[in-house]
Amino acid sequence: MESFSLILAIVVVTALAFDFTNGFHDTANAMATTISTGAMKPKVAVAMSAVLNLVGAFLSVEVANTISKGLVDEAGIRPEVIFAALVGAILWNLLTWLVGLPSSSSHALMGGLIGATIASAGVGAVHGDVLVTKVLIPAIAAPLVAGIAALLATRLTYSLGRKADGNASKKGYRAGQIASAGLVSLAHGTNDAQKTMGVITLALVAGGAVAPDSDPPMWVILSAGLAIALGTYLGGWRIIRTMGKGLTDLQPQQGFAAQTSAATVILASSHLGFSLSTTHSVSGSVMGAGLGRKGGVVRWSTATRMFVAWGLTLPAAALVGALAEYVTGFGSWGTAVVAVFLIASSAAIWKLSRREVVDHTNVNDTDTDTDTAEPAGVITTAIAAVTPPPASGSATASQDPVPAFPSQATAERTPTTTTTV
Q1: Whether residue 231 has pLDDT greater than 60
Q2: What's the confidence (pLDDT) of residue 173?
Q3: What are the beta bridge partners of residue 126?
Q4: What is the pTM of this model?
Q5: Which of 30, 99, 149, 297 could be disulfide-bonded to 185 (CB atoms 3.0-4.6 Å)?
Q6: Residue 135: C-alpha distances to residues 10, 36, 72, 255, 276 (Å)
Q7: More confident position, 312 or 382
Q8: Band of pLDDT at residue 317, cut at 50, 70 and 90
Q9: What proportion of the chain, given as a percentage, has pLDDT over 70?
Q10: In this predicted structure, what is the pLDDT of residue 190?
Q11: What is the pLDDT of residue 417?
Q12: What average pLDDT is seen over the chain?
């Protein structure tokens, strides 16, 4: 068993706390579309996701090694640096959860680690080539690839299912959704749980508890898997609402296409050791699935807020991580100040969240703020005016997608009405 100092124990506990926030922050990635389309009950969905996250944590250590061995120089990194990095990541996760924005926990962790490392050891301690090839490029490519794949898959599923029996088709797609949601959960465990494993292993190396270039010990793998599974079970209901209802209105065919596309991208990146954002992948696939259905509408106001949050994640977490590292540099009392600040800030955010509770009982209720945020502008009206595929009998009619807006529903019921853009 590794020898532990007090600061090393604090870092491990804080890393597991981050892993817990990662779990409830990213539950939406796997289960938002399944819950929003009614394929599974909310509590059952998050329970299944939690179990599969735990299983996924044991499937690979490639991403963990990218973080513990590749992103920053292990030499000269103190445990306090890891602690400061985790403070930046946790606070960003909690803030974005409070406002219901599906930002990237992965990039929050990367940003905190980069900022704290630069503040401690300088820019040279960050491996720029790894940052670009295994973090930044996947951050841009993942939502695009997943979105295009989901768009094409959605069009293909509607085309192939046009002549199928309506009820049988819906049951089949719902079963497919459950299977694909399970695959996303498994993929999430193989990617995101490993990030915490990598951070804890880096801290153990920095504290002299394990040898450099070591793989994560088994107890690290198990504890990280359990922490992310517990967070997943509690469910990040605010973000689930945004992903399931705030971006677009999904039908089972679209949910199946979105989740399958995202899972494929995530699993491929885990195999290659890319520290991919599952949030980016799933968000991109949801938007692609929304655009893939005729008459489907993506709420670009919500999407724009997400894009802004994505762009701010790395620098914001890096800034907080750097400031936290500066304070911990004053010694034990500085570390204590940062720890108290983290606990107090987390408690304040939790208290604010109680003003409007979102849980499994109301996660699928209409969010008026989201619905009114998207004005009926040129893009929205133009997309809403696109007529869905004509019904050929009751079987096909039963597959017609539910329109995203009341004005669209009126246009579909009276196809002779002319919509002016």
Answers
A1: yes
A2: 74
A3: 72
A4: 0.74
A5: 30
A6: 27, 30, 13, 27, 7
A7: 312
A8: very high
A9: 75
A10: 75
A11: 41
A12: 77
Contact 401, 251 (CB under 8 A): yes
Cβ pair 391, 355 in contact under 8 A = no
Position 140 pLDDT exceeds 50: yes
| Type of residue at 315 | P
In terms of C-beta density within 10 A (0-12 exposed, 13-18 middle, 19 or more buried), how is residue 351 classed?
exposed
Greater confidence (67 vs 125) lies with 125
φ, ψ for residue 126 (rounded to 5)?
-95, 130
Query: Which pair of tokens denotes residue 376?
Result: 């009926």
